[in-house]
Write a structure and sequence with these properties.
The protein has 5 helices and 9 strands; from the N terminus they run αββββαββαααβββ. With about 200 residues, the chain is an alpha+beta fold. The radius of gyration is 19 Å and the shape is elongated.
Length: about 200
Amino acid sequence: MERPDPYSLFDAWFAEARTTEINDSNAMALATTGADGQPSVRMVLLKGHGRDVGTSGGFIFYTNFESRKATQLSDNAQVALLFHWKSLRRQIRIEGNANPVDDATADAYFATRSRNSQLGAWASDQSRPLADRATFEARFAEAESQFDGKDVPRPPHWSGWMVTPDRIEFWQDREFRLHERWLYQRDGHSWTTGMLYP
């Protein structure tokens, strides 16, 4: 039986996860490595994906470009993503390169965010030291005042990254630890597919 392409299989698993995961079925771990070689991992939210994203397909998340993750991405574009859906006993591992999305894509997504989330993007110096919560709340209030009665534009330091995958592995839990693993590896504009021992 012919295997579906990795984007179709991702879509099918993601659709199931959206009905079974209680919170944030689009949450994914993002692993980056800076110029110093120190790896770092954190959870981010998938905000766009598919074979028609960019020129080769990909997975999109958004962040402050002055954050630690964005600084590391600027130093080293190689990243790894991990989706883990405990309710389905499944995970998907993705490895590839991350590049900034274009301004039109970032503007379109920013416009869909809630107003408070938009204001928060202006108020936060993400990953930088914060003296106390009151300071952050005061900055949020300043942003509210600045944009009172107006649309909130996307800050110049806030945008998205698209991960173009070279490897996608689908892992399905099975009884007695006899798990099932399918690996897709990019081969030009197509994919090679094979199984891995668990």
